[in-house]
Amino acid sequence: DGATKSYDGDDYSGTPVHAVMSPVSNLSSSVIVKVDSEVVRSEILQFVVVFVGLAIALIAVGLAALIFFSQQTLRRIENEWRSFKVGIEAEKLKFNEMIEQLVPGPVLQRYRARVRCVANTHTGLSFAYIDLCSFSEHVKQWSPRQVVRTVGYFFHVYHAVAAKYDVFRLRSFGDVAVFVSGLERESESEHQQREGVAQDALNLGKFAACITQLLSPAFSHYPQRLARFADCFKNDAKDQPMPVVRTRIGLHNGPAHAGLVDVGKTPFF
To answer: How far is residue 31 CA from its own chain's centroid?
Structure first.
């Protein structure tokens, strides 16, 4: 009769529905199905719960991965920092050893303690002046490499023997090197310094004799250990044998006043 009829049913694929019959011209009757709003809300809620659960799971996995990689990165940084500190300590040790070759130990300690006037009067110091005879004439006949090797050999010998006899290399200029003994007695009393002058002079004499023996093959009465040390350098390059030079050594003993001249960026003892 042209009127719209509605039918309520409880079975539409297991979902409560509301069905409406509506006649359409030249077409068979069609059914418009409307899902109940409560069912829609329930399905949306389930979807939201599943989505939130997945999101929480993904966030948890992401946080776990972030924590894991953060720990790995932190361990790597800690290891690198330890290696860096070890390297810094090693370089610091090398630097201190190099500085100790330029400034005597007691003077260096006072300088590090920021003592304003780093100078002291010594009752008696022993000096040795080592001159390489005709060194300038020898240099004219040597190649640049041989000059560098020869000078390096001399300085290695100087430092090895100086450490053995507690002698400090004060300065080198030209073909002359100046050494001093007795600077370590700076903290001792004046009486102790006077008693130690004889021992310092004796040590410096032994030092000078050993240097002469090492640089000249005419003498063979130096210690076996230092002999092996010298032979190692003399045989370092067979194509360029280590040349033999004559040395001239002068000794002096007396009171002196020593200290740092420039306490700025480049302290000069």
So the answer is: 86
